[in-house]
Structures are given as C-alpha cells and as structure tokens.
Design a protein that fits this description.
Strand order of the largest sheet: 1-11-10-9-8-7-5-2
Order of helices and strands: EHHEEHHHEHEHEHEHHEHEHEHEH
Oligomer: single chain
Radius of gyration: 20 Å
C-alpha cells in the first residue's frame, strides 16, 4: 500500500467512465469472444493512460472487464449456481428509506434525472424475475478470467507513460457478504454455511490478485447497506449480522498480506434521501476488524460528510490507512479543489497526514452519467490533494 510519506496520494473506489461506443460494443459481443477481449483490452489501455494523465497515483482497470456489475461479474466465475425465474422479490438496498418516504419513491421512476443518475429503476424488482440459485457445492471456475484481468492491467501499465510517477495498480473483487445478497440458497443447511462456502471460493480470486503484487480492493457496500435491506432488525441484531459477514470476509482473506488489502464500504449508489443509513459510528469498530491495511469510506455526500468526527473518538489503529471519499456521485456539481483540500486536511488532523489517501465516495464511472464531468471531478481531486499537501507538509 502506498503511504502518503511526502504528499497525499490519490486513488478512487472503482468504476471509471465508459464511453458509449464501448458499452455498445460490449452489448453486441458474445461473452468470452476474441472481439470482446479486444474491446476490453483497448479500453483498459486507454483508461490507464487517462488516469496517469490526470494524476491518479493508485489506479485500476476501470473495472471494464466486470461490465455485468461490480458484484454480478462473480456469478459467471462460480460453479454450483443456476439462473432461473423467481417469484421472490429482491429487497432494495434503500428499503428503510422507501418505508419512510413512500411518496417520493412512488414518483421517482418518472424522474428522468433520477434514472439517469442511478442507472436503474426506483421501484423494487417485479415478480416474477430472474434470480441466481445455489444448487450445489460452490466452486471457483474463474481463475482464467481473473488472471486475464491481471495480465490486461499489467500490459496497460507497461505501455503507459507515467512521466516518472509509477502508478500503483489495484483490482477490485466483491466481498462474501455483498455477493450473498445475489444468491438464493437451495443447497447449504444455513446461511452461515453458504457464507463460508462463498468465502472459500472468493479466496481463490483474491489470491490471484494478491499474487500478482497488486493491491486487492474488497468491495463490501452491503456491510453498511444491509441495515437498510433488513428494516426489521434492531441495531444490536444488525451488529451481530455484520460481525458474521466480517468473519466470512476474513476467512476469504486468510493468507493474503494485509498491506495489500483495501476495504471499500459505502451506503449504496441510488440517489434518494439516505436518511435511514446506519451511522458510521455504529459499525466502525466492526469495519476495522476486517484484515485490511486501508479503509475506504464515503465522506463527501451531505449524509456522511460530518462523520470525519468519528475518527476523533475511534482511533485509526497503528499502521492502518484511511481513504475518505472527498468527491462523490450524489451531485453533478464538480467539487472545488479548495473544498477537496479542506476535507483532506480535516482527516489529516485527526488520523495523521501520512495515513490519508484521497479517494471517492464510490466508483464514479457507472454513477456519474457524463464522462467529461467524472474526469473533471478526478482532476479536482488531484488538485485538491496537491493543495492539501502543500499546506500539510509546509507546516
């Protein structure tokens, strides 16, 4: 992991902008085809070069190979699953908000801006729908795909002029607790057994990324999101629920060097009230139990920006790093570099300047609908980190 020894380093939490031409090509290409591989490789090469141009220090492949989604991609890499129709509705990740604001959610689908930003309909999934069932013992069948992710990023980095500033690579993979929400169990005796099996399977993917020397980012938005999904739970019940999911994640991380692991948690991408989000203070101790060196958390949107104060009472453990989101997807406004700098300096004051990496609330590529705005946000992120660094290291 790249500690901020002489300036605040810059990274981001996931997806990067995908041009319309790329999306069209992916939609019209057969899975696993040479044509699709060529499109993805070209896109990864271009987006790595763009990150270097903007000034990203710790970058990725834009998650272009995971075009099904940051967690749905994993379904194609796991055996023991079956896709078929289901009449069981999927619980939305903002269910507590839906119960609190039924009027808003009854009209939100008619709002084209909401649809444009969120990328999906506001209403719960209709029944019948297609669902993924666990019908046998889970096993990992995605090693070749994961290795190709690694090779593709290595090739792109080797062919990119970074102007002497070598970009540190990372690749993202889904957490067991987040993938669990996509699966309907028909095989294992209980959910803990299924979670353990998911953990063993995902360990294989984690190992491919770590063995390449890359940073492994674990995407676990459902660690906080599960609170909204399960409105019948009390806080104590939810904390126990979250503890079980963290235990499964640590099982999946067994043997992976902690200094190569970054955990990303957030409160979901859909625009809306988010008034029912669980407070970071209520789960921060559980988040810190994950065997990771760096923790990426939302800190730029109006619901969670104030939670930098959590780190005044909860001390960041020695040797750990914090990557707060200081630009976000909740607005198409481009954050001013001065605002970015102020946000970073607040965190530096409470956890130490060397322990802060400038990040994003979530992956902007699939959430900010205009590439030019997303890249302008990244440019502001880099400039804000430069301003903060000048002040922090000048003191």
């Amino acid at each position: 992991m790249q500690r901020s020894t002489d300036r605040i380093r810059v990274s981001h939490a996931g997806t990067l902008p995908r041009e319309a031409e790329f999306r069209d090509r992916v939609a019209s290409s057969a899975r696993g085809s040479d044509e699709l591989e060529r499109y993805v490789s070209e896109a990864v090469t271009a987006v790595v070069a763009k990150q270097a141009e903007v000034g990203i220090d710790i970058g990725n492949d834009g998650e272009f190979a995971k075009h099904e989604g940051f967690h749905r991609y994993a379904v194609s890499r796991i055996g023991g699953l079956e896709r078929r129709a289901s009449e069981v509705p999927q619980r939305p990740i903002d269910l507590r908000d839906r119960q609190r604001f039924p009027g808003y959610f009854s009209v939100a689908p008619a709002n084209p801006t909401w649809r444009l930003w969120s990328g999906h309909a506001a209403t719960a999934a209709p029944a019948p729908r297609e669902a993924t069932y666990v019908v046998g013992p889970l096993n990992y069948v995605g090693k070749e795909a994961a290795q190709r992710d690694v090779e593709r990023l290595k090739e792109a980095l080797a062919g990119t002029d970074t102007a002497g500033n070598e970009m540190v690579p990372y690749l993202a993979a889904v957490a067991p607790g987040t993938l669990e929400h996509l699966l309907m169990n028909e095989y294992y005796p209980d959910e803990e057994s299924m979670l353990s099996a998911i953990a063993d399977v995902l360990h294989e993917e984690y190992k491919v990324i770590a063995d390449a020397g890359f940073i492994l980012q674990i995407d676990d938005p459902d660690l906080p999101d599960g609170w909204q999904v399960n409105p019948e739970m009390t806080l104590d019940e939810y904390r126990r629920y979250a503890e079980v999911r963290v235990e499964a994640l640590n099982q999946a991380l067994e043997g992976i060097p902690e200094e190569q692991v970054r955990l990303h948690v957030c409160w979901g991408s859909p625009l809306g009230p988010h008034q029912s989000d669980i407070a970071l203070a209520d789960i921060v101790d559980i988040v810190l139990k994950v065997h990771a060196q760096c923790y990426s958390v939302e800190a730029a949107n109006p619901v969670h920006e104030h939670e930098w104060m959590v780190w005044e009472d909860t001390k960041l453990p020695a040797g750990k790093l914090l990557m707060p989101g200081v630009i976000g997807h909740s607005s198409l406004h481009i954050e001013h570099p001065e605002l970015v700098a102020q946000r970073l300096m607040r965190f530096a004051e409470v956890v130490g300047r060397e322990n802060v990496i400038a990040g994003t609330d979530c992956g902007l590529g699939s959430r900010v609908p205009h590439a030019e705005i997303a890249w302008a946000k990244f440019a502001s992120l880099v400039e804000g980190a430069r301003l903060a660094s000048e002040r922090l290291w000048r003191q």
